[in-house]
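Journal club prep — side note

Before the paper discussion, L.F. wants everyone to see what a predicted structure for a comparable chain looks like in token form. Sequence:
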Amino acid sequence: MGGFRVVFHSVAMRVSVETVSYVVLCLAEDGRGVLVNHIGSRFACFACGVMINSFAIALITKGDMGTSQISSVPYVLSLRFPLSFGMMTFIMNMVFIALQVVLLRRDFHPVQLLQILVNVLFSTMIDVGMSLLSFLTPTTLWQRLLCVAAGCCIMGFGIVIEVSPNVLMVPGEGIVRALSIVTHAKYGTTKIVFDITLIAIAVVLSFAFFGTLQGVGLGTVISALCVGSVINGVNRVFAFPERIRSLALVTDRNR
């Protein structure tokens, strides 16, 4: 299994880098070979945001107070089965992508299949983040809370950098959008119900596997309540989100 994990990481990183580079080059040129709409810079910002979010999830998880709500199910599964946190995240996100196709049918835009590449990058970087933070073993309550707080702040920055270019969605956002469309519910309401559902599933799995609560805890609640405020604060205080958004045409931002 260790050998499989190494192969998965190496292949995933190579495929993600080479394929994303190729797609960016293709999308960045019009029929005359002229760069349009700063698409390369926008994809670079998006990929940077995805990697930052992956690291933030790893940092919150290392606080040993539960992980973020979107990662709660794959994390609990990784504690039970011989697959890494990142691999379980990859599997769950592939399910999310498949569900989007089923739910939206003809309304599913083929460009959103690039979420598969996003999933490869996101899942791989979660395992990379967990590996880089392997030295981190907080024991006291304040140390664990510090990990969670730092992870939430980093995640807020990452999400702003990820969404500002307006190019793609990560699978977790894509499935919420699909559910919102087919149920005719507000996106925010759908997001809340979706997150609560994931946490509930993780809690049930935790008690079923271990007879106690693992993978979900105070850190999960803190991330659910605080990341949104960090995002609002970043957008209000810093100028870089608007600079990233300005890379896109007005017509792109208003799609």
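L.F.'s comment for the group: Residues 97 and 255 are 21 Å apart (CA to CA). Keep this in mind when we get to the figures.
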